[in-house]
Design a protein that fits this description.
mainly alpha, 32 helices, about 65% helix, COBRA1
Length: about 575
């Protein structure tokens, strides 16, 4: 209790105000306690002549003096807090801050007194520069540091990177975790996926909002956060840090914080790209604008390319650029134009390549745009266009009357060069994967089965990355009826997913997510063998075990009763739009 009382009166003695200790001492050393108490009350009470006659009146009503003094005190404190906030806005700048500094000087010794603390904190909050000595005292005391306003904390953080890092670090961990939870979510859908929320919605997320608040208008703190993000991106290669880099800048943009936006050289580029991400397409006007920023990087300022590459490495940016690329390729097929003749397409590739090269650029500190491989433009993209043509040709052939000849089979061979490109060229691989997502979304089973074998070995295993698998599992729900067919399941599971399940925990998780969603579509015999193949091992993590248990439970519920087994199973027909070829 002694410590609590001491805190209650902390700092009064230095101001020459009597406290509980003084009263105790007086009472210990006096002969007439009642007189001593009366004297103490007179000396330390509220010194208003009119009050002397009113107090006995309160006594008659049984109102304790403490209650009276407390209500007076609360009232005065409210008035003082209002006054401090008013002083912070009135008169000349120097004068108002001089008043507040004087007030802080007088009141700071009472900062640990719970009843006075809010006033001291309020004074500090309104001072753009709290004296260094006071900041050090606040920093040294855990409780004071916790109690002070973010405006004061900013002043402490800007000279204490480690302390600021401790505050930011849990937020960054939380951010990455939130992203991963979305990618592994049990809701699989083509309509609502990782890329569905608009940029504006994403920026309302808790972490972005908290960081925005912590930074305020402080450029030094903003730079520190960017430094943390760069360092973590280098250490982990986790691209979600690039998303946060862009979201943070745009969150400050939303609040019109020109102090920061005008000094971040990426601001206008990010703003323009943000509009493209919102539309999920880079239109011609914005393409020109983005190109202007890239061409405008002056000699001696190349370092800005490191920042721009990080903005372009954001998966939301890559997604937009890749979708736009696929759309352009389809348009070129219709226009009989080659990729090398389309400046818009070349710009998309240039940005994709800058984004994909972000890690290498920041790691090597060599700031120049990566060289584009000519073969990507002269060989790989025309090859993708030929796949689009194959589909057109096949569809037209199907519609022609076929008296003389049997039905034309769908081309099943993949050009060897396609597989090689996916293994050796990062940009080709990224575009190839998006093309496969595109045909899956179109429910083009033939094209999907034709190209699927090329995904087993890709550049740095991109086909087994979480973002691709998240999108693929979503799009596969559109081919749900095909899962009844042995051939389709063998190609998809044995030929692709299961080749990586044992060495890549994340693939194991995505396959289980898919089966949880589609198990009722899979042929029973196939389902049984999959259940065996996907059983977790001792090394499997909790997430895999949990998903596997969920799947097992669902399958237990589905086991048919003996009576049902005798019925002949109905044939599940494939979708009518894409006829199944009879021969291969």
């Amino acid at each position: 209790a002694g410590a609590g009382a001491a805190a209650m009166y902390a700092g009064l003695q230095e101001l020459g105000v009597a406290n509980g200790e003084d009263l105790k001492e007086t009472l210990t050393n006096c002969t007439e306690p009642l007189k001593a108490i009366e004297q103490f009350q007179t000396e330390n009470g509220v010194l208003l002549p009119s009050l002397q006659s009113a107090l006995p009146f309160l006594d008659l009503h049984g109102t304790p003096r403490l209650e009276f003094h407390q209500s007076v005190f609360d009232e005065l404190r409210e008035k003082l807090l209002e006054r401090v906030s008013a002083i912070a806005l009135e008169g000349k700048v120097e004068e108002r801050y001089k008043k507040l500094e004087d007030l802080l000087e007088k009141s700071f010794s009472l900062v640990k007194m719970p009843s006075i603390q809010p006033v001291v904190m309020c004074v500090m909050k309104h001072l753009p520069k709290v004296p260094e000595k006071k900041l050090k005292l606040v920093m040294a005391d855990k409780d004071l540091y916790k109690a002070c306003a973010v405006e004061v904390k900013r002043q402490i953080w800007q000279d204490n990177q480690a302390l600021f890092g401790d505050e930011v670090s849990p937020l960054l961990k939380q951010y990455i975790l939130e992203k991963e939870n979305i990618l592994f979510s049990n809701d699989i859908s083509v309509l609502h996926n990782f890329f569905s929320p608009s940029p504006k919605t994403r920026r309302q997320g808790e972490v972005v909002q908290k960081l925005t608040q912590m930074i305020g208008k402080n450029v030094k703190l903003y730079d520190m956060v960017l430094q943390f993000l760069r360092t973590l991106f280098l250490r982990t290669r986790n691209v979600h840090y690039c998303t946060l880099r862009a979201e943070l800048l745009m969150s400050l943009h939303d609040l019109d914080i020109s102090e920061i936006c005008t000094v971040d050289p990426c601001h206008k580029f990010t703003w323009c790209l943000d509009a493209c991400i919102r539309e999920k397409f880079v239109d011609n006007k914005r393409a020109r604008e983005l190109q202007g920023f890239l061409d405008g990087v002056k000699k001696g300022q190349e370092q800005v390319l490191g920042d721009l590459s990080m903005i372009l490495c954001d998966p939301f940016a890559i997604n937009t650029l890749a979708l736009s690329t696929i759309r352009h390729l389809q348009d070129l097929v219709g226009q009989d134009t080659l990729p090398r003749e389309s400046p818009d397409l070349l710009l998309l590739l240039r940005m994709l390549s800058l984004g994909q090269g972000a890690w290498d650029m920041i790691d090597s500190q060599v700031f120049k745009e990566p060289k584009m491989e000519a073969e990507l433009i002269t060989k790989f993209l025309p090859m993708l266009m030929s796949f689009v043509v194959d589909d057109h040709t096949f569809n037209v052939d199907q519609k022609l009357p076929s008296e003389e000849k049997g039905p034309i089979p769908y081309p099943s061979a993949i050009p060897e060069a396609f597989t090689k490109f996916l293994q050796e060229n990062r940009i080709a691989c990224e575009i190839g994967l998006y093309y496969i997502l595109h045909i899956t979304k179109q429910r083009n089973k033939n094209a999907f089965l034709r190209l699927l074998p090329a995904l087993v070995e890709t550049f740095s295993d991109l086909a087994f990355s979480d973002i691709f698998l998240h999108l693929l599992t979503g799009n596969l729900t559109l081919l749900g009826d095909e899962f009844a067919l042995e051939e389709f399941c063998t190609s998809l599971f044995d030929g692709f997913f299961l080749t990586a399940c044992s060495r890549k925990e994340n693939v194991h998780r995505h396959v289980l997510r898919l089966l949880l969603h589609l198990h009722h579509k899979v042929a029973p015999a196939k389902l049984e063998s999959l259940q065996k193949a996907l059983e977790p091992t001792k090394q499997s993590g909790e997430a895999v075990k949990e998903l596997y248990n969920q799947l097992t439970e669902k399958l237990e519920l589905r086991k048919p009763s003996p009576a049902e087994v005798t019925e002949t199973p109905s044939m599940e027909l494939p979708l009518p739009t894409v006829p199944t070829p009879t021969s291969r």
